[in-house]
Amino acid sequence: MAHRARLARALDGTRRRAAFERGDARASGSVVRRWRTGATARDDAWGGRGVSAEALEPVHVRGLNDAQRAAVLAPVGATRVLAGPGSGKTHVLIGRVAHLIHEEKTPPREILCITFTNKAAKELRERLRDKIGEVAAKEITAGTFHSVAARMLRRHGERIPGIGRTGEFTIYDADDSKQIVQSVLVNKFGESKKTAQPGPMRNWISTAKSCVKHSVGLRGSQMLRALEDAKKPIPPMSQQRFVELYDEYEDGLRQANAFDFDDLLSATVAMLEMCPDVRAYYERRWSQVLVDEFQDTSTTQYELIRKLSQPQGSVFVVGDADQAIYGWRGAEVANIRTQFDQDFKEVQTHMLTTNYRSTSTIVEAAQAVIKESSFPSPLDLVAHTPGGRDVAIVEANDDREEAEFIALEARKLVQDSDLRYSDVAVLYRTNSQARVLEEAFIRAGVPHTVVGDTSFYSRKEIKDMIAYLRIVSNSSDTVSLNRIINTPTRGIGNSTIEKLNAWLKTLPKKDGLSPSIGDALLRGAWKTNPGEQSELLPSADEMGLTARARTAVLNFVELMRACQQTAMNATPGELLEDVIKRTGYETMVLDADDGVDRWAFVQELINLAKEPPRDVDETIQDRVGLEALGAFLEGVSLLTSAETDDVTGGDKAKLMTMHASKGLEFDTVFIAGVEDGLIPFIRNGDSDDDQDEEVRLFYVGITRAKRKLMLCHARERRRFGQSPQAARRSFLLDSISATLTGTKKPERPVTLHGGVSARARNGTGMLEKGKADWSARVTVDLPPPTRKREGTTRDRIVKSRDLIKKVTGADAVVPLPLRKAQAASESSSGSSARAKPKRAARHVKKSPDE
């Protein structure tokens, strides 16, 4: 019956196509010719006689399996697709868009596709171009939650009552937000700049904003209650400080005409709720809403989707509750499990269960893990690729031996096959595990990169240049102005800045807030009549400055005014070159020890800034001026949201946390530290939901592997700088071994957290090596014994330095243990050369009592 239905749909499409060619609008519908991508290929297939039924189907469903095809062709309405790892969810999403355009006659301009990462959004746009053509793809709005929200706020955000921002707002990343928090801690609570720790408070603010539908107009006391209601309470001793700090933080954002990342979503939801005309506009603008990775949506993100897709209810969400691993940053897995059914009528659910990525052995190992979850998985995955000896459980004596095994095995795999280093990934639970692994990779001569190192946009010189551009675009941006007002050094020190801040408090207030330092200096907010022609700054006495300090500030004001004038008719790249020339920034960078490398990053930024600016909806035609500058800065801000690491470039093995591996796949995957307390990770105060998420995280890590998976654990491990502690392999490994060997899951002796039971030790107090009955489907590899060190300490130091240079391509930085050994060796040899001849020992006569 399903076969006949597909054939009937295909024949119906043929009749409508023929009607279109005849010009019969009634039969063909309002099809626009330019959207009919791939028409020639379909006509060729349909024109022949005796072709298969599959060939008669529309191009966008060819090659899909039955479950994928059913999801793509589902009736318009509320549709949820539960897609297991490697099940082709992106194919379904792209096919759905093509189906809406070709079969449902939805104009591309009315389609909104939302993803979570810039990488996913870029891939989505590229594949849409391949599937539906360049013209139609450009008309579709495809981007991340934050990029879509930012564009909406640029256009209509000023209509939100009491929002206190203009359309030229700056987007603050996590570092910018921490600077505001630190300023409050120092100025209001009297903490010193050296000891203030803004991180925890900034994280609580972010978590609180993700727990409410929107935070516009809410005070600190209300946000505190939101945290308590979400069962994410703040320690009692910090609650009052949080309430006061939150209000000061929000005032700081308004004063700087800035939104943080959480505000982008929160303010957009508030806009749709408070401005009915704006909401009506976007309901007409996007009649079809599609969302990827729906299991990772927060309360605010879900509310944004709900408001955009109702009342028409045409929403298509794709996700997998088994891969929900971001609860710690506000994601609510209940959105995909239950909330979607409560808020939308007649929800259709489709399940994608065929895994095209991993072998059957790896899929079975993953299934064994997810069965340990407290929530039964609705998906029963089936692998498309047969398995064999694809999974290994490896035991090492300690974490160093584990790291050595992984590095040497990675090298061996590449040397003995057509595998490339970039096909290999090493995953771990915590960043603290990376150091010992990286040292082992250096010693083994394996090219590698640690995902999570300083990203391009986090480098000091890049942040400096972006800060200059931000001030040109938005002079109210206090964080950016404080960053560059004395960079390069121009005689405006901390004392002068403190006096400027004191002067600001004497100026007229607007909406209860003093003007920002940028508005006072660059927009003349100090003037009684802003339109009057006068000096750029008041007198030194009025500002509370010395004549010398006022001159330094005046020079800075003149410099920035000149840059603002340049920006009117320049590309962002040309503006950067003008800023560098006027400030002498190139000289400052090149004078540093690593100046050549740092200057190369600045040049790369200039090249990026000279490219045509891209908008979420369309390409900005005018490549110069403030609009192009704003588009460039918006793109930079959105790229700093913790996803700027390039994990695809270069033939290097990738070392990363399991969280960072989400959305990636590799031929061979090593997972280090699969031990109780580490995987799943245990913290004090963890809830059952937290522990369940840890199980899902391991499931995500396993399903990154395509052909080989090696799960490693150690008998002893050093954690957080402590001495080696006894460790025991995770109970999740027992589940995997029992599933793959068809044996009964072994009983686990009860142990205290962090301890080892007596039954796990032999008479010497050492851990005994566990024994397991493995079938041929599972490989059990033992790491090679630690090799005996060869040569003298100095020989090993020289060899290490040469090896580091060979692997990294940079001058060697000798690891700390070897640096200490080198210093000791040199000290010993130096002291020996200067040592005086020893005196002959004097004979001391013993007393009778001795």
UniProtKB/TrEMBL annotation:
Keywords: ATP-binding, DNA-binding, Helicase, Hydrolase, Isomerase, Nucleotide-binding. Residues 360-663 form the UvrD-like helicase C-terminal domain. GO terms for molecular function: 3'-5' DNA helicase activity; ATP binding; DNA binding; hydrolase activity. Residues 835-850 have a biased composition (Basic residues). Residues 820-834 have a biased composition (Low complexity). InterPro entries: DExx_box_DNA_helicase_dom_sf, DNA_helicase_UvrD-like_C, DNA_helicase_UvrD/REP, P-loop_NTPase, UvrD-like_ATP-bd. It catalyses: ATP + H2O = ADP + phosphate + H(+); Couples ATP hydrolysis with the unwinding of duplex DNA by translocating in the 3'-5' direction. It holds the Pfam family UvrD-helicase. ATP binds at A83, G84, P85, G86, S87, G88, K89, T90. Residues 62-359 form the UvrD-like helicase ATP-binding domain. GO terms for biological process: recombinational repair. Residues 820-850 are annotated as: Disordered. SUPFAM superfamilies: P-loop containing nucleoside triphosphate hydrolases. GO terms for cellular component: nucleus. PROSITE patterns: UVRD_HELICASE_ATP_BIND (PS51198), UVRD_HELICASE_CTER (PS51217). Its EC number is 5.6.2.4. Belongs to the helicase family. UvrD subfamily. This is DNA 3'-5' helicase.
